[in-house]
Design goal:
- The chain contains 9 helices and 4 strands, in the order E-H-H-E-H-H-H-H-H-H-E-E-H.
- By secondary structure, the chain is of the alpha+beta class.
- It has one domain: Glutaredoxin, CATH 3.40.30.10.
- The chain has a 4-stranded mixed sheet, sandwiched between helices.
- The longest helix is centred in the C-terminal third of the chain and has 25 residues.
- The two termini are 25 Å apart.
């Protein structure tokens, strides 16, 4: 039975940053049973702080909630921007160049939230992403500037909006038997892992039943 989990995220979202340990542990634990993917869900003005002071307040709250020994930085933040397209395009472009795992987008998030780099600058973002992915910086910039890349980012963001949720990250779990679970804004491992265990068990039961009884009788 096929089981998949998609992580909808914005590269510079602090809450997505705090969810990374959970995502890493899920991939380690369920690597043989679940397929994993991530997609960009751009934050817009409604999901962004209105000032640096407000950003710092949110960072202090989320840092305390996650028992973090460090505080995220706000040096990179520009209140007048409606979205942070550049780092998300860079992460998406890296996938076109063969880096399909998490290392480029995680490097971009760390450069932003831990180091305070001006990640909205194309050259800075490309430098961080190219180094993390072992990519040619010029080719990466070309791919990130491509209208095709932006169209894909816009499409995955629109896809996220159809879920009618409000928080990133959003984890969407689907099984071949039609079960679906959605966690929006949940970053702790336990509830997601418990749900995956239950869905895996149900999928296995369906497979066992099919092996013994085959397809349902025709009407």
């Amino acid at each position: 039975m096929r089981i998949s989990i998609i992580n909808y995220l914005d590269v510079v979202s602090s809450w997505c940053f705090w969810a990374e340990p959970t995502w890493t542990e899920l991939k380690r634990t369920y690597a043989e049973r679940v397929s994993f993917d991530w997609r960009i869900a751009l934050m817009d003005a409604s999901g962004l702080p209105k000032s640096r002071a407000q950003e710092e307040w949110f960072y202090r709250r989320s840092g305390m909630m996650n028992r973090s020994p460090f505080m995220l930085r706000t040096d990179w933040y520009e209140p007048v921007l409606p979205e942070y397209l550049v780092p998300n395009l860079m992460a998406e472009a890296a996938r076109d160049l063969g880096v399909k795992d998490d290392k480029v987008r995680v490097a971009l998030a760390n450069a932003t939230l831990r180091e305070g780099k001006n990640i909205r600058d194309w050259e800075i973002a490309a430098g961080v992403a190219a180094k993390a992915g072992g990519l040619d910086e010029k080719k990466l910039l070309e791919a990130a500037h491509s209208p095709v890349t932006e169209a894909r980012v816009r499409a995955s963001t629109a896809e996220w909006h159809t879920l009618q949720v409000t928080q990133r990250p959003t984890f969407v779990i689907d099984t071949e038997i039609g079960d679906r679970a959605i966690f929006s804004g949940v970053v702790k491992l336990q509830p997601i892992a418990a749900t995956l265990d239950s869905m895996i068990e149900d999928a296995a039961a369906y497979a066992a039943h099919a092996a013994h009884f085959g397809s349902p009788p025709a009407e």
